[in-house]
Amino acid sequence: MVWTTIWSHAQRGIARYASSTSGTIQLTMWQIVPAKKIRLVFANEYGGKIQHIQNLSFKTKDQIQKFPDFSIQPAEVFKTTAIRIDPSAKKWQLSFQTAPCESGFAFNDADFFPSAQTAVFCSGLTAIEAEVDGKCIIALGDSLTEGATWTAPLQRQLRKQSTFLVNQGVNGSYLLHAGSDQPASKSSEYFYGFDSLTRLRHCLKSHSNVSKVVLFFGTNDLIEGQLTLENFQVKIKELIAVCQEQKIEYQLCTLTPCLGYPGMDGEKECLRQKINQWLRSESTELWDFAAMVEKQGKLKPVFDSGDHLHFNAAAGLTIARQISSDFVKGE
């Protein structure tokens, strides 16, 4: 048994949206694994101020555990003491108060029960660990990952094998640099997150017992005209080097088609094809998402969500089934 991250959600800079984040956070989650002990992981990844967590409690069935108040410095990761829980409990309920709210995520997660949250963002909580016989895989990427079309069905399959895939996608995220929906001068305003390399390092700091990282980046850089074959290669090699330093396996992914999406054109499509050719020729650790969903440089209509970029549920299931098959075969 080893402490393993079984759930996490990517944080982003939310300082501009603090008015949409209530000071009280209440979450009800489906049981992820019938563990006897878990730990809650808090982070202040993008915050520039000390974050205060108060009145933290965790409930399963009729058992409630309360924790002393604590504070998190900017960029700090804080883990609670072990929480003993009833492994037969199907719901986990979590409540706490927090301020200020500069780093967090939106309340759209497949493991959460629907609720009448007045807040839009959850600040503070970033992951849950359990003492299990298993391993964690991080899916690091942009909206093509955060949308969960392929990660959610794959999570369900892999959890049966005590492999916990966690979704660390941030919509709008870039391979090459930090980003935001408005001009930003500080990390708490990076609504689209840090650059891929910084995000990877932060993930490896906050997650436990990680066996592999899936790296699915580059589409936003491509569409905005910032990508070249050379800077893609340089950044991917830097990401690989971090994984190798930590003795963690990595999985690269081909860039999926997006012709028809605003900003995409024929010249950028040629670059996408060159990048994918390089990935296919150079990497044996590759999930060829493009080959699964494209036809003549475009998303197959049956897999198109409607904007010619993002996957629909059918595409996600196709990808998840292929990857799940690879895991079963030990590839």
From TrEMBL:
Query: Which superkingdom is the protein from?
Result: Bacteria
Matching entries from InterPro entries are given as: GDSL_Rv0518-like (IPR053140), SGNH_hydro (IPR013830), SGNH_hydro_sf (IPR036514)
Residues in the signal sequence? none
Q: Which residues form the SGNH hydrolase-type esterase domain?
A: 139-314
Report the transmembrane regions from the record: none
For this entry, the protein name equals: GDSL-type esterase/lipase family protein
Q: Which organism is it from?
A: Enterococcus viikkiensis
What lineage does the source organism belong to?
A: Bacteria, Bacillati, Bacillota, Bacilli, Lactobacillales
